[in-house]
From TrEMBL:
It holds the Pfam family DAGK_cat. One of its GO terms (molecular function) is phosphotransferase activity, alcohol group as acceptor. This is DAGKc domain-containing protein. It comes from the Eukaryota. Coiled coil: none annotated. One of its GO terms (cellular component) is membrane. Residues 123-263 form the DAGKc domain. It comes from Serpula lacrymans var. lacrymans (strain S7.3) (Dry rot fungus). SMART domains: DAGKc (SM00046).
């Protein structure tokens, strides 16, 4: 019998009880364990038809955030949800059962109430523009989408407009002409596809409204930094967790950058790097088959070579006190999803003006010590194994810059200890791997860290590697400045999902 928030459905003469509390959906299968033959027919999908399920339990307790669909039609109730397997990854469960005729009205109302509780104000049955890069990462983006993600979107009742990109900047061309009817743009690839979409928005006839369309990544590349920052280290590489974020996420405003080089302006959302970190990114592009392990390989190779980075760095400094920056970030990581209407940029008819290009030298600081790399960007994680910018915030209107110093060769020659310098610096660089996924190297005394409103770089050598959002750019002069809250991403949390601890002075690395 149906009672408040409880409903019994039938399949093959057996009852399954569904009910929901203030926080969870409970599915009580009430039957025995399925046999091996039946189990082998169902890998990741469960259903009431035959009582298939992904685990040998008689009861599922599912948080509302993991319920994605509940629909009643023609005497049948369908419920879809995500649950975690033994590896802590999400799997899709689909449930269907017949409802007795006298409970049809109640079943329809029950499904509506469950959906209201499950989505909590997020739009149901979204209209999504999906861009899949079949060549992204290690080439599994297409199967990740068709086998894992698309079934989740369809179970949630979404309308999908799918395009498989065919060449470089294809996504940019699509975004430039994109109709403003979509609830989100979903990118199934690495961070490079997001870079293309944002630069397409920059050329849109209504750039403000285009930038207001949220972008939501499905991790299918090498680094997947944005997904890691939005979902956290535990779920950042789980394609179904990312799909859930598409369904349940709210628009979150985020800063974007203008990258100006050779009088050409491009949008950057993640990072710009030069020196060792650029070498390990672009210089290992031929090793994409290794996944994000290629970054570790590139780092170790760079440590052995120990090359300094001959460039001139200047910036407009806002803050360089590490403890102050860390405490401020810690105090501002519990934000609720921010109101996208408060950005003030949605009605832009063109990109925000550049404030610092070709202006006075007043307010600029030149960094003069030798260093191994420069890494500038937005978002704590740049890969699963490296929290490069642990005090980065989505919309503080600032660029985070990390500079890895190295003691000058000339000074050590004077001290007749050149060999020790090489040994010591390699040891420090290798030690920087310790706790890199938790941001520990932030505290190293050889890791200088700045928050700036703009910066510029002039290479002092003819050859080198410059990476912007993980893509190779010409190794020539460039300048970067920030545009506060210009971009929009989908987030269930309204902040970067990072757990960075402020250390006591005695714990600071040398």
């Amino acid at each position: 019998m149906a009672t408040a928030h409880e409903l019994t459905v039938k399949n093959n003469g057996r009852n399954v009880l569904l009910k929901f509390t203030d926080a969870d959906l409970i599915v009580d299968y009430g039957g025995g364990i399925m046999d091996d033959e039946h189990s082998s027919q169902c890998s990741s999908v469960s259903c009431f038809s035959g009582f298939c399920r992904t685990h040998n339990t008689r009861l599922d307790q599912v948080p509302f955030r993991q319920v994605i669909g509940a629909y009643y039609a023609k005497g049948s109730l369908k419920v879809s949800y995500l649950t975690r397997n033994h590896k802590k990854n999400f799997v899709l469960c689909k449930c269907e059962g017949a409802v007795e005729e006298e409970h049809n009205t109640f079943a329809m109302d029950w499904a509506d109430k469950l959906m209201d509780a499950a989505y909590k104000g997020a739009k149901q049955s979204k209209t999504l523009k999906v861009l899949v890069n079949p060549r992204g990462g290690i080439g599994k983006a297409k199967s990740i989408f068709t086998d894992q993600v698309e079934p989740v979107f369809l179970a949630a009742g979404c309308t999908l407009d799918i395009t498989y990109t065919e060449y470089i900047n294809h996504a940019c061309e699509i975004a430039q002409e994109l109709k403003l009817k979509y609830d989100a743009v979903v990118t199934v690839s690495g961070d490079g596809l997001i870079h293309e979409v944002l630069n397409g928005f920059a050329q849109h006839e209504q750039p403000g409204k285009a930038f207001a369309i949220p972008i939501a990544p499905i991790p299918a590349g090498s680094g997947n930094a944005l997904s890691l920052n939005l979902l956290g280290i535990e779920d950042g590489l789980d394609s179904l967790a990312a799909a859930l974020n598409v369904l349940k996420g709210h628009p979150m405003k985020a800063d974007l950058f203008s990258f100006i080089q050779n009088d050409k302006r491009r949008i950057s959302f993640m990072s710009q790097s030069i020196g060792l970190v650029a070498d390990l990114d672009i210089g290992t592009d031929h090793l994409r088959w290794m996944g994000d392990s290629r970054f570790l390989y590139g780092y170790l190779r760079g440590v052995l070579s120990l090359k300094t980075c001959p460039v001139e760095l200047s910036f407009r400094l806002v803050e360089d006190d590490k403890e102050k920056m860390a405490r401020f970030a810690q105090e501002n990581t519990g934000q609720k999803p921010c109101d996208p209407s408060s950005s003030g940029v949605d009605d832009l008819e063109e990109l925000p003006p550049l404030r610092y290009l070709g202006g006075t030298e007043e307010g600029w600081t030149t960094y003069e010590k030798p260093f191994i790399w420069i890494y500038a960007g937005k978002g704590p994680y740049v890969s699963r194994s490296l929290m490069q910018f642990p005090v980065s915030l989505p919309d503080d209107g600032l660029i985070d810059i990390a500079v890895k110093e190295v003691v000058s060769l000339y000074s050590f020659i004077l001290l007749n200890s050149c060999l020790k310098m090489v040994k010591d610096n390699r040891a420090k660089l290798l030690k920087a791997l310790d706790g890199a996924e938790d941001g520990v190297p932030y505290w190293s005394t050889t890791n200088r860290y700045f928050k700036v409103s703009a910066y510029r770089i002039k290479p002092l050598a003819s050859k080198g590697i410059l990476a912007v959002d993980g893509e190779k750019f010409p190794y020539t002069d460039f300048q970067v400045e920030v545009h506060q809250r210009l971009g929009t991403f989908l987030s269930q949390y309204g902040r970067y999902m990072v757990n960075f601890k402020v250390q006591e002075p005695k714990q600071v690395l040398k």
